[in-house]
Amino acid sequence: VKMAHELSPIEQLPEEILYEIIGNALESIFSLKLVSKYFNDRVDAYLKRSRALRLADRLDMEWTQDDVTRVTVGLQLEKVVLFKLRLNRHVISDDFPWSKIDSSNPDWRIIEPYQWKFHVSDDVHPLQYFTFDFVATEEFLNNLNKCLGGSSNASLKQEIGNVYLYTCDSKPTFRREQQLHFRKLLSGINVREFHYGGNISNEDVEFINEFIEDHNVYRLNLQQMETTVSDPVSALLGFSSRVRSLYLNENLISINEKWEYMFGLHSVEWADIILAMLGKEMKLDNLRINGFDVPRWLSPASQEKLKKFIPQLERPVSFEGYCGNVHRRFADYMDRGYSVRAIRGGMSIQYCARGPSQSRSAASHLVISSSNDV
User: Fold this and answer.
1) One domain for residues 90 and 19
2) In angstroms, rounded to a whole number, what is the distance separating the alpha carbons of residues 173 and 184?
3) Mean pLDDT by groups of 10 residues along the chain of 374 residues
4) Fewest beta carbons within 10 Å, which of 242, 342, 357, 360?
């Protein structure tokens, strides 16, 4: 350990200032580590502190036809150097030739000993993407988790903006294995918006709820293909008690336009379910339902009930429903601070304390629109 009089002027700076300098010189961070052992240690300390920052804006996890795991990480350009440095520390050797596989040469590279390959996208606007193909092992998942900023310390948890998991064609046993790998990869990381695509079963609902709680998910975006949940209403209320924002997107392979169907429910009045999901005891305050494939899911009676009772809710909420069978047009009016108005192919019910011009972020909004208008 150097004595104070042995430190250079820059080494005598307070650590907070030194960390600020490092954070603003990420493009030179590899060179900075070579200056001295002191700077090498300070850079490593900065990496641990920086886990509380958002490194990745997007992460996708899916599986190729030969059951190889594919993970794609999207980062803003200024975060790329930091991510490369973490890869060097946890996955790749320190002398890895990044200059040979930069955005101008996006070839796949085979990396030992994990038998994985990756490439870097040549498109850096708005994000640059690193894609990894690998046979999942606990060691590799743990190391990649460290690169993403995984932490068991709640105060140091980093957030990823959008996380996508697609399990459309998986057998139940393999899907559970996929979900386990997914949880390992994202251990100790918060998620702003979780996108889940595929068939929805009781086991999937349980997995989604656990993931929401463990990763502090703000918005859940479901792209459901087939719903086999035994109690769909209970599942929806469970989601509503856990997230602030919920998007439901019904994507049916076999379509019958006469179906009054949504999320495993046939011929029900959705107004009661929606009002319960947005009730004052729920966490949910932003709900959007896209039913383009089943345009009859929201009946005229439910539309009228939502027009009447959404303005009576005791909390600000937002609801958008796309159904393609709007009941009727009507003149614009105000009700309890809500602007109720007809729009092309639908209607809007929006809470606006200072009138209709108030920003949507401070308002509650209901839109029921035909798919042609979206």
Assistant:
1) no
2) 17
3) 61 74 65 78 72 78 76 86 82 63 52 57 72 80 87 70 80 77 92 91 93 95 87 95 93 57 80 93 91 75 88 83 66 79 66 51 39 35
4) 357
